[in-house]
Design brief:
The structure is a single chain. Helix 14 links the parallel strand 10 (301-306) and strand 11 (344-347). It contains 21 helices and 13 strands. The mean pLDDT is 96. Helix 12 runs parallel beside helix 19 (445-466). Helix content is 46%, strand content 11%. The chain is of the alpha/beta class. The strands form three sheets. The chain has a six-stranded mixed beta sheet, with helices on both faces. A five-stranded parallel beta sheet has the order 6-5-7-8-9, with helices on both faces. 42% of the residues are buried. The structure holds 6-O-phosphono-beta-D-fructofuranose (F6P). 6-O-phosphono-beta-D-fructofuranose (F6P) is lined by residues 122-125, 175-177, 180, 183, 238-239, 324, 473, 476.
Length: 519
């Protein structure tokens, strides 16, 4: 009914267009949501984050991942020191390393150039680089193949080991703390595998292993030469670290110039976020819409639906970014919240998801706001084989958001099924199901950087509204601690101690089964 709505509720930033008109809002809703953002002190919170205040209060840390992509190179002060010279030093180190590996000048122990890049890391030390590497596939060098090992599951490592050979492999041990059990166990196992290969000597480790970490002593203890360590800093959170040396697999696969474009795109979004009035501020608008559904409609989840095969890892990446950040139930002052905080973030690539879970989004009992994300231009037009694909993909993307919004008017359904009235309720769509559509000119490194930064800031804004610490992750700790005890019992290195009945029975069951297998 409102012809001006799409125009009024659309924003453009660089080469990203956000149409948020298919949401349950009026102009007044937006005004009130923005008033809420002001009342929550968002202006000050943004200034605090960018200026290096220790806003991660429980860990007493600043949150300065934005400095890593500060391509304007203006000083960023942390504890009285400009961090930019260090940032640039590591970028130059990455650049020179990438040049050597990509040109074939970096040789393995038998004199062959590197052909396989294997990143060993978990959480933020895996998801970010993995997502970006896949998203930028059209930019890959054809001399290298990327691999990612994260899980502490032999099947994960085995799948990679069967594809590579030690002579042409470069292993990146990526861990901010250099203590994550999964990464360390995988790194040690890979080192043994490497040293078992015919002709390898201990001194060859330096030709095949590098580390990305903020824990230099631990890296050296592991046996990696300081020259092969790429540093990053305590003020970079794990899930915000792909802009740091954690992005090394990205730089290796797409080249340093493209990695710098990724940073520049994110910086452009940072500048927009810092300066644009809230009414035209893309991260702020997306964040406030999320708060609207979470707290006023009880929407417990939010779907991420990229219509681009190369963005298939984006939902998992954003899942960590958002859920580890905003899955909190106490305020900054430690008071229990009496409202909902972060939603469940999930999703999968379109159109595949349409044939799997969209049914529930269209006709299920829950309200699931969704972000449709699609590139206007595909990299694959040039081939006549794929000539039609992109138009079909895009038409599906747009049709889905249209269907969610409109539903199907009862009257039409009644007409169509007048001879089968029992089908009418099954064939009806209520509509009024909200979504955003993000159209990106093309998935270039620059635009991808901007897109990721957009979601980072969205998460940050929501944390400010909910008055929680978006930058710690204490919820991950307890399970880690308990597992080390259970591990000793499963390995028979300690007698089964009294746990709760369920835990004890499960351990007992495994031990008994394993005994039977051994016997
Ligand atoms: O899951 C907890 C966590 O600390 C994440 O925040 C982090 O990205 C991941 O573990 C990996 O940590 P690290 O890089 O120190 O190995």
């Amino acid at each position: 009914e409102d012809a001006g709505r799409a125009e009024r509720f659309t924003l453009s930033q660089g080469q990203i267009l956000l149409d948020y008109s298919k949401n349950r809002i009026t102009g007044q809703t937006l005004e009130l949501l923005i008033a809420l953002a002001r009342e929550a002190g968002l202006n000050q919170a943004i200034a605090d984050m960018f200026s290096g205040e220790k806003i991660n209060r429980t860990e007493k840390r600043a949150v300065l991942h934005t400095a890593l992509r500060n391509t304007a190179k203006k000083p960023v002060m942390f504890e009285g020191k400009d961090v930019m010279p260090d940032v640039e030093r590591v970028l130059n180190q990455i650049q020179s390393f990438c040049q050597q590996v990509r040109s074939g000048a970096w040789l393995g122990y038998t004199g062959k150039p590197i052909q396989h890049i294997i990143n060993i890391g978990i959480g933020g030390s895996d998801l970010g680089p993995q997502m970006v590497v896949h998203a930028l596939k059209p930019y890959w060098t054809d001399t290298l193949t990327p691999h990612f090992i994260a899980n502490i599951d032999a099947a994960d490592m085995q799948a990679t080991l069967s594809d590579i050979d030690p002579e042409t492999s470069l292993f990146i041990i990526a861990s901010k703390t250099f203590t994550s059990t999964e990464t360390m166990a995988n790194a040690l196992a890979i080192r043994e595998w490497f040293l078992d290969a015919p002709g390898t000597r201990r001194q060859d480790i330096k030709k095949h292993f590098v580390a990305v970490s903020s824990a230099s002593e631990k890296v050296e203890t592991f046996g990696i030469a300081p020259a092969n360590m790429f540093e990053f800093w305590e003020w970079v959170g794990g899930r915000y670290s792909l802009w740091s040396a954690i992005g090394l697999p990205i730089a290796l696969m797409v080249g340093m110039a493209h990695f710098r474009e990724l940073l520049a795109g994110a910086h452009k979004m940072d500048t927009h976020f810092r300066n644009a009035p809230f009414e035209q501020n893309m991260p702020v608008i997306m964040a406030m819409l999320g708060v609207w559904y979470r707290d006023f409609f009880d929407a417990s989840s939010h779907a991420i639906l990229p219509y681009d095969h190369n963005l298939r890892k984006l939902p998992a990446y954003l899942q960590q970014g958002d859920m580890e950040s905003n899955g909190k139930s106490v305020t900054l002052d430690g008071e229990a919240v009496n409202y909902h905080t972060g939603p469940i973030i999930w999703g999968a690539v379109g159109a595949n998801g349409q044939h799997a879970f969209y049914q529930l989004i269209h006709q299920g009992t829950q309200l699931i706001p969704a972000d449709f994300i699609a590139p206007v231009e595909s990299f694959y037009y040039a081939s006549s084989v794929y000539g039609e694909h992109h138009a079909v993909l895009l038409s599906n993307c747009i049709a889905q958001s249209q269907a969610l919004m409109y539903g199907r008017e009862q009257q039409h359904v009644e007409q169509e099924f007048s001879d089968q009235p029992e089908l009418i309720p099954h064939r009806s769509f209520a509509g009024n199901r909200p979504s955003n559509t993000l159209l990106i000119d093309k998935i270039t490194p620059h635009n991808l950087g901007a897109l990721i930064a957009l979601y980072e800031h969205k998460t940050f804004v929501q944390g400010v509204i909910w008055n929680i610490n978006s930058f710690d992750q204490w919820g991950v700790e307890l399970g880690k601690r308990l597992s080390t005890e259970i591990e000793l019992e499963l390995k028979g290195e300690r007698a089964l101690r009294s746990h709760d009945a369920s835990t004890e029975a499960l351990i007992q069951h495994i031990l008994e089964q394993q005994k039977q297998i051994q016997d």
